[in-house]
Protein: Dihydroxyacetone kinase
Amino acid sequence: MAPQHKHLLNNPATLVVDSLKGLVNLNPNIKFDEGQRVIYTPPTQPRVALLSGGGSGHEPAHAAFVGPGLLDAAVCGNIFASPNVAQVRRGVELVTGDKGALIVVMNYTGDALHFGLAAEQYKASGRKGDVRVLLVQDDVAVSREQGTIVGRRGLAGTILVYKIASALSDQGANLDNVEDVAKYVTSRLGTIGVGLDHCHVPGTKAGESHLEENQLELGMGIHNESGTHKLEIPSIAELVDQMLFKITNTNDPERSYVPFKGDGSDEVVLLVNNLGAISELEIGGITSEAVKWLQSKNIKTRRVLSGTYMTSLNMPGFSLTLLLLPGKSESAKYSSSQILEYLDAPASAPGWSWTSGKEPGVVGEKVDEAAVEDKKGKEVDLAPTDPSEFISAIKRSCRALIAAEPELTKQDQIAGDGDAGLTLEAGAKALLKAIDSGKLNGKNVISDIGVIAEVVEEDMGGTSGALYSIFFAGLGKALRDAADAGNKTTTPEVWSGAAAKALETLYKYTRARPPSRTLVDPLEAFIASLPSKGLNGAADDAQKAADKTKELVAKAGRGAYVNQEDLKKREVPDPGAWGIWRIVDGLRGFEA
Structure:
């Protein structure tokens, strides 16, 4: 897996400023000192100002967190490089009033030196207000021996520190109190990150991955530092288990940083942070597993925050943070409810994700179901001419689709979005399961076709699932009409007439008509030939129509958005059309 080295920008040298200008366009409530690259909100009332910052590349941290209830200023360096002293000093000057300022930054050498020196210079200048610096060190991957001199790295837990400190400042607290709560929160934070690869810095040469295709790295920082361990990619449940164990384990003298009791009294805030390039779909699964893990360890989760808070540019990875809340038996300055009150306090900034302000929902919780009137139609019998052959034909079609999955997937990777083979395979496997369970049994074709429509709708999904489900729903309606007209069995004439009506039903909901390079090409060819040529001849015509799609310009479906000349050159049939051919080939006798 190679790093994501493609970027959209004008010039790597101006990327940071261009991005900050975009942030100002987005949020008219903030100001931008372009010369020193400071995003800030001018003071409107006396409060302890909260500042943060560091190298860029961690967006939305920290500039996008400037706003009410969060930061008063963020000072932005180059990508992964600390801002200089003059920049930091300018940020302090812009927002510090009589009540002083607290600078909350991640523990990296450059940030510690530059922000610290700027604070000392400001105090030495005789200006109003004291200025203090707090270094957040929440990374549990760094051992005590490793961090003997420099300490641990600061990671996504930094966001929670200044959110809580800012809320206390909004209540009118003085600098001592704001600094004290920030220090307390910092002492109860643990974070660990994981990456499928390193990120790529715009303007630098693309490098080769140092990980194998099946590896990930545990203990990642946010500046492309290597992690502490390389692992074969496990399931997300196994990975979350390893990560949260490292945060909560108190038996490792090198990495036991957070005072968990492990007696069922621990309460936490969980922060699931996207490091840049993990899909929202995956983040949802990670969040679910993290909450489940905490519940299994009798650790009460009081709040869940999940989203993109602190990135490492486009790193495909995520981090987990736990904030251990004050215990009821502790003689702490703060209660759990106080810390949660500060965390839940309103905040308005582009980077602050939605939070519920409540404990996580209970998965599987019983819900009241509204009474639904039973509108099921009367049972009508229509037997297949040969029940055994009817079921065998369905099985053959299913096996044909399963066998064709690789070729359908390959076709769709070129002509669509790559999921056609898996989608049809899922529907086929679900139908075989329905046969094995007896739900689809060959006794009554009307109810059996209804089962097929239901199964493909539920198990295939997407456009294909909808099209197939509509067709089979129309087929079921046509067969019911045939039974009402006095037919007792499904003769070839009954099947031909019902299929034609089902196609009419499908055409109500799709504009695709042959020749269109879609599944309707072989489907219509098959249905049109069925009365005169029978099953074998109709299947041959379906194959010809499916093969003909190699030459056609797509007028509908996913293929309509793909380069048409490229499709023609590569002679790729439409995967949906090819799937129809595989189905009818199964009906007439395909054997895997």
Summary: The radius of gyration is 31 Å. The mean pLDDT is 90. The chain has two domains: 10-200+215-358, 383-588.
